[in-house]
Design a protein that fits this description.
421 residues, alpha+beta, 2 domains, seven-stranded mixed β-sheet, 20% strand, elongated
Length: 421
């Protein structure tokens, strides 16, 4: 029987004993022979139950003490106590570079500087199975603030900071520019004659909801490289940045929106422009895509590297090559005056999305918590290598839900996302 059952039986026995005594008192008589026998039986049972209760309580206390010790031990491993760090000057409370931080995560978890970086909240918010160490702020900016030549989407999109709580979903208003309204969200402007009644106008709004999703990247580094943190920091930082860029660029470009961002190529706001000839890109395709672009902003072409032989030979009606190749490092080639950026993760020539004309200011990115870092030597233990897992939270989606009808020709639509189909 459990302790709860034993206590319940103890109460029942005592109630029955009290009933025997009360019955004799109310009738002003002595306890009868049968009552005496029953009373003695109950007393004997009560003594046995009370002995079991004492044993059960002692066992429960032992289990509680053991559980507390196990929790203390787990807490000691997961959240190192404050103590002097192995690699720091006495007056320096910050890590010198990202390499030193990774060294501490892998080899010196008792480093006091890791104390405030451990993220137990990650366990309850679904970020990793065992939490992780938050990348220090100064290195987080270095990892996420990628330059335009390193990433296409993040430097050009509209980025919403993490906020607090960082991983909660955020809803924000957006103009309803669907076919039933207009490109001004339903606001109508009318000329009014003298003395005429001013018309009512109604601005239609809808909501965009973004909820950061977890994404992780893995890097394998030799233990020797990690120990030489002072020299290896630049290499490790570059690896981590490129891993983050790779994961995000793929999702922002072609994500399906299921537990990940919704990419430009799969956006319901895109315009699929049908190419003239299969597996080719012709002048008619390029000028047709240009005609469907929502004008303004800073549009760019996103192209697969496999399209270069086609782009390089496109000529207009006068025989002029329209793809302007740049020989200056860092300056992109252009097509109709807009930069052409070649995307490693674009699909092959002839596949929908091998060429995209887009204004990425209409693409929203919502940052969440992270990046966090975990390090494990177990998988490559015999090879003296460490697996470094970098995980963070992010979401993204286009600001529009469908293409926009032209104000003067509502049967024709334009979009900041034009995809060659």
């Amino acid at each position: 029987m459990t302790l709860e059952q034993l206590l319940a039986r103890q109460a029942e026995i005592m109630k029955e004993l009290r009933a025997i005594l009360d019955a004799a008192d109310s009738e002003q008589r002595e306890i009868g022979d049968e009552e005496e026998t029953r009373y003695n039986e109950l007393e004997t049972e009560l003594e046995g139950v009370e002995a079991q209760i004492t044993t059960a309580r002692a066992d429960e206390e032992r289990r509680a003490r053991l559980t507390a010790r196990e929790e203390d031990q787990s807490r000691i491993w997961r959240q190192p106590p404050r103590m002097a760090a192995t690699h720091r000057a006495e007056d320096d409370d910050n890590f010198k570079n990202l390499g030193e931080f990774l060294y501490a995560v892998r080899f010196n978890r008792s480093d006091g500087r890791l104390y405030d970086l451990y993220d137990e909240r990650a366990q309850s918010m679904g970020v990793g199975s065992e939490g992780g160490f938050a990348v220090p702020t100064q290195f987080r900016d270095q990892l996420l603030s990628v330059a335009p030549q390193q990433a296409i989407f993040r430097p050009r999109a509209t980025v919403i900071p993490a906020g607090d709580p960082p991983d909660s979903e955020v809803s924000m208003p957006a103009l309803d520019q669907t076919a039933s309204e207009n490109m001004y969200g339903g606001v109508e402007v009318q000329w009014i004659g003298e003395g005429s009644t001013k018309p009512e106008t109604d601005m239609k709004l809808r909501e965009i909801t973004l909820k950061p999703h977890e994404v992780a990247a893995h890097i394998v580094a030799t233990d020797k490289l990690l120990r030489n943190w002072a020299s290896a920091s630049a290499v490790l930082e570059n690896q981590m940045r490129m891993a983050i860029v790779a994961a995000e660029e793929t999702a922002f470009y072609n994500g399906n929106g299921v537990a990940r961002p919704l990419g430009v190529v799969q956006s319901p706001a895109r315009i699929n422009y049908a190419r003239a000839t299969a597996s080719q890109i012709a002048f008619a395709d390029v000028i047709g895509m240009f005609a469907r672009l929502k004008m303004g902003g800073s549009p760019i072409w996103i192209a697969s590297q496999t399209t270069i032989p086609q782009l390089g030979t496109i000529q207009d009606a006068a025989g002029n090559y329209i793809f302007v190749q740049s020989a200056v490092t860092g300056v992109p080639s252009t097509l109709f005056g807009y930069p052409v950026l070649f995307h490693d993760r674009s699909v092959a020539l002839g596949t929908a999305g091998d060429l995209v004309l887009t204004d990425l200011s209409y693409y929203l990115i919502k940052d969440g918590s992270g990046p966090f870092v975990q390090a494990s030597e177990h998988f490559y233990f015999t090879s003296n290598k460490t697996v470094i897992k970098v995980f963070w939270n992010v979401d993204g989606q286009p600001w529009l839900s469908e293409a926009i009808p032209l104000e003067g020709s509502t049967s024709n639509t334009v979009s900041p996302f034009v995809v060659l189909n």
